[in-house]
Specification:
Layout (H helix, E strand, L loop, with lengths): L14 H5 L1 H9 L9 H8 L14 H14 L4 E4 L2 E4 L3 H31 L1 E2 L2 E2 L2 H5 L2
Length: 138
């Protein structure tokens, strides 16, 4: 299901993308934690032959993220990432660190979602949208 407000970039992974995840695996397998690869570099390399990989259009970074997510969640393929890029690791310590990082981001997103819930309650009154001036007095 696409993410609200980002529908064009977050369409579900396509069958063509699933069929091409092997290319991403090949890119990743040679990049370890000491030599990560940036998303734009993967996309640029992939797009040299995107038609040969069976895609209907060149790969974008959001679509790469869909493919990486697929590999992580459906194939348990250990693609890791940090501020320097993506890398492959089977090291349990690195995998634990990745899980901890994801958990931290999940918690931060939960706080944002909770904040929007409070804002919705603040800016509505029995289902009627209130204006900023009605809420603040300005």
């Amino acid at each position: 299901m696409p993410i609200e407000n980002f529908e064009k970039k977050t369409e579900n992974i396509t069958q063509e993308e699933i069929n091409a995840v092997w290319v991403i695996k090949d890119f990743m397998k040679v990049h370890k934690i000491v030599d990560p690869i940036k998303a734009y570099q993967i996309v640029r390399g992939f797009n040299l032959n995107w038609r040969a990989y069976g895609l209907k259009k060149p790969l974008s970074e959001p679509r790469l993220r869909k493919m990486v997510n697929y590999l992580r969640t459906r194939e348990d393929y250990p693609i890791c990432s940090n501020s320097k890029g993506y890398f492959y690791s089977e090291d349990p310590e690195v995998l634990n660190s990745q899980q901890k990082s994801i958990r931290g981001r999940k918690n931060a997103l939960q706080e944002v979602e909770d904040g929007f819930g409070r804002m919705i309650a603040k800016y509505t009154d029995n289902g009627v949208q209130l204006s900023f001036s009605e809420v603040t007095g300005f």
